[in-house]
């Protein structure tokens, strides 16, 4: 079972966590101004990269707080975790936090 | 009352206590410290079951969990199918029978309890043979939290099947001292009868401990029969040792054909002669010590077949002294 390093609690087992999808998808500033297609883009369309991916996680069985993580979708390795509001950590070529 | 193939001395069995058990309808006698396999061999029983398709007879090949053929069904105290006779510890009142590849599941509910436990450590050592014991001891002396798991009922691994010396004294004494030091060191957990069966991400290892299986009818109802250990470790030392591989030849699956190292284990650990007359077939030096020790214990070894072009001279000479042709 994988350990996920919660930025508040430290490393905990993955079954304590819930996945929250792609991170940094902001709510449209003026939803009423969107066309149907733009609204559909916001609601349904997400990136699906092969490699580092910034996503939201919630530590449901621990501090119950949300945080962000960069996960390599090919290996499941968590490359970085950071708190909500912090910018995505820059990664070097090896996928490590620069 | 002693079984025919049991030596008067030697091994880690308690000859003063007799354990009566039933195998294929026959009542036989063994002793505490025996496995079902060693007790059968002590009574001269080599054929355990048969193969599922052609009904070829199947016997006891090895002395541990690496045995491929000695499948038995436990009928009492509680039905359990497809166990290896070499891994069933003997207890009074055991009823078992040999299988032809298929067992019988219990039709009544299992009254036993089962549980699971978590443990965290710095170093997990899998296997309590000489390498594992030293690894665990070194880590423990440095102050690390250590878990040592071993599938057998006593530590020592391959040393249990030899008369070897370690640090100028019998290996059994050395093992006892190391285990005593480990058990008295805070932060060290020694788990016997515990087999690590899976290693997963981030140092997560699962192990199954058989806690009351060896007690048979005397197993207390309020103690979990088996326990799954969920171990989270920073480092793992795999010290599982080596299994001897069989020489391949026609009909090498018949009862009476046994690994040389296992014959040695039956001799030294259980005080059992695996026969009265044997040919030793080998491709390396290791079987010579088995041949020599079996000969000294009274087994007639008329012939040693070495697949190599030249047998090692000193070992061949030792065998010639004992009237064995190489």
Explain this structure to me?
- The complex is a heterodimer of chains A (about 100) and B (about 325).
- Chain A has about 100 residues and is mainly beta.
- Chain A is built from one helix and six strands; from the N terminus they run E-E-E-H-E-E-E.
- In chain A, the strands form two sheets. Chain A has a four-stranded antiparallel beta sheet with strand order 3-4-5-6, with no helix packed on it.
- Chain A is globular, with a radius of gyration of 15 Å.
- The model of chain A has no long low-confidence stretch (mean pLDDT about 90).
- With about 325 residues, chain B is an alpha/beta fold.
- Chain B has helices at about 35-40, 130-140, 170-185, 260-270, 285-295, 315-320; strands at about 20-25, 25-30, 45-50, 55-60, 70-75, 80-85, 95-100, 115-125, 145-150, 165, 170, 190, 195-200, 205-210, 225-240, 275-280, 300-305.
- In chain B, the strands form five sheets. In chain B, strands 12-9-8-15-14-13 form a six-stranded mixed beta sheet. Chain B has a five-stranded mixed beta sheet with strand order 2-1-7-5-6, with helices on one face.
- The longest helix of chain B has 14 residues, at about 170-185.
- At the A-B interface, loops of A face loops of B.
Give me the side-by-side strand order of the main sheet of chain B.
12-9-8-15-14-13
Query: What percent strand of chain A?
Result: 25-35%
Shape of chain B: globular
Mean pLDDT of chain A: 92
Number of helices of chain A: 1
The secondary structure category of chain B is: alpha/beta
Q: Per DSSP, what share of the residues of chain B sits in E-state strands of 2 or more residues?
A: 25-35%
Helix share of residues of chain B? 10-25%
Task: Output the number of helix runs of chain B.
Answer: 6
The separation of the N and C termini of chain B measures: 38 Å
From the structure above, extract its key features.
heterodimer, A: mainly beta, four-stranded antiparallel beta sheet, two-stranded antiparallel ribbon, 1 helix, globular, B: 326 residues, alpha/beta, six-stranded mixed beta sheet, five-stranded mixed beta sheet
